[in-house]
Amino acid sequence: YQDEIKERPRVATLIGALANYTNLSQGAKEHENEEQGKTKQMEAVKMSTIMGVYLPCVQNILGVILFVRLTWIVGLAGIMESFFIVLLCCVTTLLTSISMSAIATNGVVPAGGSYFMISRALGPEFGGAVGILFYLGTTFASSMYILGAVEILLNYIAPIMTLFGPFTGPENRAALLNNFRVYGTCFLVLMSTLVFVGVKYVNKFASLFLACVVISILSIYAGVIESAFGPKTTELCFIGNRLLKLSGDMRCEKFYNTTVGNDTILVSRISNFMLTFITVHAILKLQLKHMNSTIYNTYCTTGMVGNATQLICDPYFAANDLQQLKGVPGIASNVHKDNSFAHYLRVGAPITTDRLKDNPAADVQPPELGTGYRTWLVADVSSSFTILLAIFFPSVTGIMAGSNRSGDLADAQRSIPKGTIGAVLTTAFIYLSSVVFFGTVVDGALLRDKFGDSIGNELIVSIIAWPSKWVVLIGAFLSTVGAGLQSLTGAPRLLQAIAKDNIIPFLKVFGRGKLNGDPTWALLLTCFISLIGIIIADLDVVAPIITMFFLMCYMFVNLACALQTLLNTPNWRPRFKFYHWTLSFVGMVMCITLMFISSWYYALVALVIAAGIYKYIEYCGAEKEWGDGLRGLQLTTARYALLRLESRPPHTKNWRPQLLVLLKVDENLQPKHPQMLSFAQQLKAGKGLTIVSSVLQGNYLDSYPEAQAAEQELKKAMEANKVKGFQQVLVSQDVSQGLSSIIQTSGLGGLRHNTVMFGWPHGWRQNPDPKNYKVFLDAIRASSACHNAILVPKNISNFPSRNDKLEQGTIDVWWVVHDGGLLMLLPFLLRQNKKRTLPYIHCNTQVWKNCKTRIFTVAQLEDNSIQMKKDLAVFLYHLRIDAEIEVIEMQDSDISAYTYERTLMMEQRTQILQHLNLSKRESQREVIQRSRSVRFYSPNKTASETDQYTTESPRVAPTDGEDTDSLTNQTTEPPSDMDQSQMTWTPGKHLMTKASTSASGTRSGFGNLLDIVPQSTNVRRMHTAVKLNEVIVNKSHAAQLVILNLPGPPKGSNESREANYMEFLEVLTEGLDRVLMVRGGGREVITIYS
């Protein structure tokens, strides 16, 4: 193996490189060591499952929702529905954790965490889209944590810090949100600065924040246990069954003191709904004392009714008593019966309790009381199962924290599954038990009081806690701050990983950072996006946004695992074995279901964002080959489709041209006529199969590099012309054999070409070697033998490019013989180009859209041209093709001298090239000299016409005539014998006699050519070609494109007949700018049936 070792690494070298692999950016570790003054790189201590995965996941999962919203969710949804909400979310994350564990243990997961896993499993397009969504979700999560920290600080720890006056109650909601915006921005600046200074400081505080979370939860559990021995002292005040907010020194007592004369009267109940009537003398002397100790000054006032002064009160207040209930009756009470079922509220609906009854009253506010006097609490937002689900789901996110630290783990493939699944189960138990405890300990009305206004703005979980509410308040505040720091730390690194992969070009700048690898620019963008969430300021609005982003990410994690498992690729060998594709599929379905249940319009927005990023990466992103599962799915799907696709030709209704384009390359291995690709694109418009092929003459072993280079050039040309398809280059000793092999073998199974397109061999007349057009004829024969349709564009350099647009004109179809209907289908396909402006849709502009279709058909003498036109109109009507119809009557006229001259010159050229072994230049000069020495005169032609026809022979090649063959280079081949059969014809003898006389001075060796008499078959064919060409030029000289039948080539290998065939085609298409010759494949391609 000595030769192999020189080019391939030794096993020891490979193993050593893998063992020393690190996911740190280059130079980061060295920079950190230099900062600490270390000259020798020290090996970092690897973390265990508990410290590296379990505790970080627990810290990220348990967050602000547990402390500030879970009690509110339980109060509205009830114990049963709240339990189901939490269980649904936890099961979703558990299934996602199982899928993530399988992916994470199927190899090393570098920086990027979930993004790396998804992108390498589903490809760069899906990976980039989901990576951006996960980044946005993590960034908005930082906003949610900051808003939660500000809410705890302002509402429950230091209300005195308000900047915009009172902020409690629904009436002061604007002031509350403004406080959140100001303090949230300050928190964001401070926390971002800490992250910018160094991540190591954030990591040092992580343990403190985690300890606060654990202590707070234990304190809540201790408070629940304590409530079993007696209720808390917290009292709630109700009027009827409506929960009241008491401010200042207001007491929950319904009485007032009045002095009438020298007597003091205690009025303890109002007997009417609207008024309390006292004698006029008593009212005049009425003095209200100690009004601040009651709530009558809020719900009652005095007013004049006629000439009498009366006491006017709110109807509901007058009809119901004031009552008090324990806010935390304890776990031993029966409060769970009232909290078992849902109590969803609309905006403005009063918060009530089922433990009390009320007396209904008219909902009328007396004008004497003004507005906004009612102090009973109302719902600030509408609630439902879906809304609460969207708000709660962010509290179970954070399962990716362990996979993001895979490089710091002692054994990542063992720690990630155990730690992540263990953390999910632990936090699920905490959430589920908290739902049950909150519903069995706290009164339902207090649970529905979101901000604790009824108990003096206290955090509800804090009044449950033991030994002090400050344990929970401080712990909740620090834990939310810590979670926010973790989000601000992780989000920029995720964006940096996406930017470094260079799949989204405009994000490249965010891959830069400090010398130690910290993402500075990504941190700035993260702060800006997080500021948007803070400006929203409403935690209940920000949470559903996060829900959508995380659910999208988790959905694709499950999809990646299910896909890899079903494909069963050889590289799919995860160490974590407790997974199954059904679990991943169920997890994916649950994620999609939760997205649309939570908020269908948010879900649609998230899907649109993901689809937009996907298409952008597909169009502009760098091409990456990561061996992703999506590529494997494509291969498996393609195999399945090919096996299902029948090998026999498709039904006529499904027929469309599946093109095989044969191109010749120049000395630079570039396509010689790229206009053929443009025309193929116009014909296909991105639909169906297109294969672009070329043949290089030579030995494959020697020409392999040239073949690869030519294939790349073909690919570039296809991309430049927006042709979707495949390219292939074949190396063959004989070009004709190579083309035959391509025509026979291109395609796979039922996905094969049915149409072959190749160019016309310009300049074949000037080349004495018949090989230059023999390759063309061999390609026609091979295509016909394979029952493929044939398209031969002539003067291809004059065809419009894909960016041109023909404003007017016609596409003329000359239908001489029926050949399957392809001639009538081609104009329809060319005019079907639809203009699309989106940059990622490869479609040409409307090149032929404005061109009308005209169909000409030829009638013989025995045909009824009028009936033919009617029948053709009916036929086109049933075909649903709009076209003008014209029937051309060909008169059977005498053969002209010009026709005879063209035939004679054709046969003379064949004889000259057959008997003389000259070089290309000598042969061309000899033919031109000989043809000029022969002049013919016809009495039926004018002098100008005679001169015109004379100068037309021999014809001069078109401007692109330097190419002697559109398919191959020049090769030589011995000529074959000609058919010497002749016939006697009097006009021919007369003309030949005159020709012999005029050419008496010709040098010896050519004398025998003057005795040639053209064959009658050739003369007749030439006569047909000339007459038909005259009609076509007369009718279609201004047409944008002329489509006509391509006659079949002569059978056998008779060189003279082959040369005559080429001459006939030249005469037939003479004087036309753009010609497309078409030959059907022997089957119908268009039908009148649906």
From TrEMBL:
| Ranges annotated as biased composition (Polar residues) | 939-953, 966-984
Where would you find the membrane-spanning parts of this chain? 53-77, 83-109, 121-138, 144-168, 180-199, 205-224, 377-401, 421-447, 520-539, 546-566, 578-596
Keywords in UniProt for this one? Cell membrane, Chloride, Glycoprotein, Ion transport, Membrane, Phosphoprotein, Potassium, Potassium transport, Symport, Transmembrane, Transmembrane helix, Transport
What segment(s) does the record annotate as region Disordered?
938-984
* Reactions catalysed according to its record: K(+)(in) + chloride(in) = K(+)(out) + chloride(out)
Under the heading Pfam families, the entry gives:
AA_permease (PF00324), SLC12 (PF03522)
A GO molecular function annotation here is: potassium:chloride symporter activity
Q: Topology versus the membrane, per the UniProt entry?
A: Multi-pass membrane protein
Gene Ontology, cellular component aspect: plasma membrane; synapse
Q: Which Gene3D superfamilies match?
A: Amino acid/polyamine transporter I (1.20.1740.10)
UniProt record, GO biological process:
cell volume homeostasis; chemical synaptic transmission; chloride ion homeostasis; potassium ion homeostasis; potassium ion import across plasma membrane
SLC12A transporter C-terminal domain mapped to chain residues:
674-783, 795-893, 1021-1090
Cell compartments where the protein resides: Cell membrane
Q: Domain named Amino acid permease/ SLC12A: which ranges? A: 53-279, 383-660
Stated family: Belongs to the SLC12A transporter family. K/Cl co-transporter subfamily.
Q: Which NCBIfam families match?
A: 2a30
Protein name stated in the entry? Solute carrier family 12 member 6
- What is the scientific name of the source organism? Ciona savignyi (Pacific transparent sea squirt)
Taxonomy, top ranks, is: Eukaryota, Metazoa, Chordata, Tunicata, Ascidiacea
